[in-house]
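Q: what sequence does this backbone want?
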């Protein structure tokens, strides 16, 4: 199991466990876990509504690709710790990370 901590917009924290080997991205897992994520573009890095801030473990994640960086550049509240959850594949690199949900809400 891959364990990570999710801090919601109200600052409530919850550890979630994700089975290894599932072919999902972090946005899909957050939606399935009933977090309020719009995911308007369906995971194509076109809307930034799955914006998360990586509070711990940023250095263990893969570097963002150009499409993700371009979308993050459009966000007024993006920081160097910002990522799009749709661009983070669920794998062992997510083990132990702590993220805070930042994207737009419904």
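A:
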């Amino acid at each position: 199991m891959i364990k990570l901590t999710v801090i919601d917009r109200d600052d409530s924290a919850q550890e979630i466990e994700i089975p290894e080997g599932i072919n999902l991205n972090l946005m899909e897992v957050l939606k399935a876990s009933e977090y309020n994520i719009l995911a308007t573009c369906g995971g194509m890095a076109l809307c930034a509504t799955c914006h998360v801030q990586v509070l711990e473990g940023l250095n263990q994640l893969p570097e963002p690709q150009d499409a993700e960086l371009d979308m993050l550049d459009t966000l007024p509240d993006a920081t160097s710790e910002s990522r799009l959850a749709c661009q983070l594949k669920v794998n062992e690199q997510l083990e132990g990370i702590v993220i805070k949900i930042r994207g737009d809400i419904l």
